[in-house]
């Protein structure tokens, strides 16, 4: 049993053992160990990272937030445990002179800004707008009631708990804010773990925490502005409020556009992907500096910068992951560890302080639960839902610690009051996950919400719905204009870049016509979203590249900036034998991601089709592969905007004597059932058919001659130097008399082509 336990928990135990191995080095004075101040600084970082990460891992495995492990790690390394058991070690490492402390505190202060940047990036204001008025009622009551209780508690507490020279009113503002804010990260973690993130109630809980967080940081910024002036003066308060209001208005109007353009320009102009991370950090520091100049704390600027960066349409998941990685791995453990070092739990042996801490925990818990519960009741929620909301809002976590640390640093809170607040934050945060799990587990799901969840589950597996950015290569002909329209339909609201084949300049009518087609497709998509009662698609930000001939080099250079799909519409794309021209081969070879080709075979008419309810059908061959499903989704996205009818044709060659009740037959029916569910999500009615007695190309060609105006196929790229999709695709391009749109999967790297397994697709 012991061996089993050690094996299961080998990594956390190993991390803790490593910390204990490093600790003896701290037992000796620096002059005896030969360590310089830089060496002690490095040792501090190591201990905070190792202990914080190890305890965070242990807490995560029992369903608690990892950030609490990092805070508890700092508490254990400070006077609460290490300083009590081994004061010499704690004094040498963490209680040095002022210059030594300033080194680790500088990292912690930068960590505050980085944490607020990350918190802002994770603040989804679109979720708040989508949920509606319930979250505003909950957040208003959930902030007001505990804020009033915290302010009143500060007026009644002993004078010994106040910092020297601070006013009760300012301390009350700090304590009220600390008690009223919920930690979005902790709330979202538990809601996501319980699979409630997409449930109506889960979104209301998270949205309420987002609003509380935003209100709280504005209040705390104003409070710090008051605290730094030493007293409350009406004139200074009015100036501070006016400065914060002007900053918020500027940030969410002109500032939003400046941030978006700066990130996009950097992404498009620099070769290194890390340049975007640099610009994000510069934006954070600039906005923090602005808030400092208007007399409020830098945390407000960092938080608002995070919101704007998170909303940027050009920010890829990869870049966001890089930034989140360094913040989570370095700055979070160091900041919360330093906060824990400042807390001295040994003071709680004083019965009076212990009782006051218990009273503070009770006031915080009852005030927060009661405020959120009352807000939920006023919003018309049921008793069980109101209980769940009250439980969910009662998590302080990282937010409370940040507020308390700022109050301690500016001299508003005493060390004893800071310790009491940190203790309260730890207790309420550790109590929230089990109570919220219990409350959410008692809630059932309605039929309407169940259908919405099914639609969103389809979206999560979807290709078109998850596209982040499109790269379009098109000429000025009818194929290029049709491809531009397709880009507008598919990528409405998503940033896209258009490479104008042939090097046209902006005065060329072909350039203008393609941009008009993109805008027309995006506008049609927005109208379709309104009809379907979905959130309207935003106007797509389009970047134009003209004046440079389109080649493999220009496409490869542009592709490095991060695109989800390359859409190509060139008039001369096919040879007389049905293969692809050398130019298409080179362009496709320069892009490793999914490729969409808009093609007009030689047998097709001179014009591209006009899709609509009265037009001919869109034919979509499928065969159960993932790439064929992508093609079906692309066709449904087009049909949902244009209203064109769609026919799904399952093509598979089987024996004539195969009975109906076989595994393969049931598989075909399951594939079509999945396609029908996907069509329901897009609000499109589809006709389905199975053709299994003839070759796939023959079945597709016969159906194409029966009122089909466009064929959309999901195909798999074949390894090799030339662009190939298999014999079926080649036969379709030679025999069919209507335009064809091919959507392929990722390109197989040439070094891996020899060992790449064969993949089956429609092609």
UniProtKB/TrEMBL annotation:
Domain Cation/H+ exchanger transmembrane: 51-439
Listed GO biological process terms: proton transmembrane transport
Source organism, top-level taxon: Bacteria
Topology of the protein relative to the lipid bilayer: Multi-pass membrane protein
Membrane-crossing segments per the record: 39-55, 67-86, 106-123, 135-157, 169-192, 204-228, 234-254, 274-290, 296-315, 327-349, 355-380, 401-427
CDD domains in the cross-refs: USP-like
UniProt keyword annotation of Transmembrane helix present: yes
One GO MF term attached to the UniProt entry: antiporter activity
Pfam families hit by this protein: Na_H_Exchanger, Usp
Keyword vocabulary terms for this entry: Ion transport, Membrane, Transmembrane, Transmembrane helix, Transport
SUPFAM superfamilies in the cross-refs: Adenine nucleotide alpha hydrolases-like
Domain UspA: 617-742
GO CC terms, sorted: membrane
Family, as annotated: Belongs to the universal stress protein A family.
Name the UniProt record assigns to this protein: Potassium transporter
Species per Swiss-Prot/TrEMBL record: Mesorhizobium waimense
């Amino acid at each position: 049993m012991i061996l089993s336990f050690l094996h299961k928990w080998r990594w956390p135990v190993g991390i803790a053992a490593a910390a204990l191995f490093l600790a003896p080095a701290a037992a000796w004075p620096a002059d005896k160990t030969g360590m310089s101040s830089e060496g002690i600084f490095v040792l501090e970082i190591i201990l905070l990272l190792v202990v914080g990460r190890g305890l965070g891992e242990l807490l995560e495995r029992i369903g608690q937030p990892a950030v609490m492990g990092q805070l508890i790690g700092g508490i254990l390394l400070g006077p609460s445990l290490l300083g009590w058991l081994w004061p010499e070690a704690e004094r040498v490492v963490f209680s040095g002179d002022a210059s030594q402390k300033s080194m680790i505190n500088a990292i912690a202060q930068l960590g505050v800004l980085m944490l607020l940047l990350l918190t802002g990036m994770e603040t989804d204001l679109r979720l708040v707008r989508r949920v509606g008025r319930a979250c505003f009622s909950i957040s208003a009551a959930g902030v007001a009631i505990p804020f009033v209780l915290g302010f009143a508690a500060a007026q009644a507490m002993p004078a010994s708990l106040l910092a020297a020279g601070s006013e009760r009113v300012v301390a009350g503002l700090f304590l009220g804010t600390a008690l009223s804010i919920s930690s979005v990260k902790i709330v979202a973690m538990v809601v996501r773990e319980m699979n409630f993130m997409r449930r109506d109630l889960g979104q209301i809980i998270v949205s309420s925490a987002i609003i509380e967080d935003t209100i709280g940081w504005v209040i705390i910024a104003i409070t710090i502005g008051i605290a730094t002036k030493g007293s409350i003066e009406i004139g200074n308060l009015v100036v501070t409020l006016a400065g914060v209001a002007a900053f918020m208005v500027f940030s969410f109007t002109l500032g939003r556009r400046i941030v978006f353009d700066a990130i996009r320009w950097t992404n498009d102009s620099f070769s290194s992907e890390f340049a975007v991370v640099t610009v994000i950090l510069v934006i954070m520091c600039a906005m923090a500096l602005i808030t400092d100049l208007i007399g409020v704390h830098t945390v407000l600027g960092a938080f608002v910068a995070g919101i704007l960066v998170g909303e940027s349409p050009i920010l890829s998941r990869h870049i966001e992951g890089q930034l989140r990685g360094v913040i989570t791995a370095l700055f979070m453990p160091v900041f919360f560890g330093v906060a824990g070092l400042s807390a001295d739990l040994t003071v709680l042996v004083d019965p009076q302080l212990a009782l006051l801490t218990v009273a503070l925990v009770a006031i915080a818990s009852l005030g927060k639960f009661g405020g959120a519960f009352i807000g939920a009741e006023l919003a018309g929620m049921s008793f069980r839902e109101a209980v769940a909301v009250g439980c969910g809002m009662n998590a302080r976590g990282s937010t409370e610690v940040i507020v308390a640390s700022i109050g301690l640093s500016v001299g508003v809170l005493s060390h004893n009051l800071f310790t009491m607040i940190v203790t309260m934050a730890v207790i309420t945060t550790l109590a929230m996950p089990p109570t919220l799990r219990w409350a959410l587990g008692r809630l059932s799901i309605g039929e309407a919400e169940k259908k919405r969840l099914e639609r969103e589950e389809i979206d999560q597996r979807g290709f078109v719905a998850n596209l982040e950015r499109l790269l379009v290569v098109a000429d000025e002909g009818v194929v290029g204009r049709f491809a531009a329209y397709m880009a507008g339909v598919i990528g409405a609201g998503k940033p896209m870049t258009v490479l104008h084949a042939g090097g046209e300049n902006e005065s060329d009518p072909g350039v203008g016509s393609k941009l008009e087609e993109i805008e027309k497709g995006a506008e049609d998509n927005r109208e379709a979203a309104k009809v379907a009662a979905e959130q309207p698609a935003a106007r797509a930000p389009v970047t134009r590249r003209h004046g440079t001939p389109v080649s493999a080099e220009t496409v490869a250079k542009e592709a490095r900036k991060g695109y989800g799909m390359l859409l190509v519409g060139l008039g001369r794309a096919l040879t007389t034998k049905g293969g692809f021209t050398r130019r298409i081969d080179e362009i496709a070879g320069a892009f490793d991601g999914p490729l969409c080709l808009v093609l007009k075979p030689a047998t097709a008419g001179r014009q591209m089709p006009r899709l609509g309810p009265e037009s001919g059908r869109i034919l979509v061959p499928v065969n159960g592969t993932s790439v064929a499903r992508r093609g079906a989704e692309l066709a449904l996205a087009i049909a949902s905007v244009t209203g064109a009818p769609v026919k799904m044709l399952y093509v598979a060659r089987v024996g004539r004597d195969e009975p109906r009740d076989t595994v393969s037959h049931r598989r075909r029916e399951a594939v079509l059932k999945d396609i029908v569910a996907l069509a329901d999500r897009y609000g499109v009615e589809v006709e389905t058919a199975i053709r299994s007695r003839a070759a796939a190309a023959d079945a597709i060609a016969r159906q194409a001659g029966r009122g089909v105006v466009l064929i959309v196929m999901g195909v798999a790229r074949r390894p090799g130097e030339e662009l190939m999709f298999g014999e079926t695709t080649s036969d379709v391009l030679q025999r069919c008399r209507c335009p064809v749109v091919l959507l392929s999967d990722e390109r197989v790297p040439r070094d891996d082509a020899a060992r790449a397994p064969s993949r089956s697709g429609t092609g």
